[in-house]
């Protein structure tokens, strides 16, 4: 059996995008770190950011804090090249990220709905997820002094990917 695959054909060359922390929002008892990404600007449009926070409010479980939930999560508003995306993620059961993915047409950034299909994120969005995973491990799971959720909430990603 050959493992050789056909060539990858890119629609357009990769272009680094700014990814940045926007705000720490309180959403129904949850502390949510909100990030932004845009294909054409330094930050996503405000309507998409607001819709992302609204999407978080619609899916984050209640109550925020239980024996297996900590009331801590993160969200990403992404003005992508072909569609608007919002990822809402929260920590559950010590080491699991639960996620809901939303999308909307570019011309309607405030019309987010559940994203059809099986996507979990793109290379830019997953940079945030990777950072958050590492921060959770460093500040909560593997912290020799014990879990420090305040330190986790102040750890924030910013960069170009």
From TrEMBL:
<protein>
    <submittedName>
        <fullName>Uncharacterized protein</fullName>
    </submittedName>
</protein>
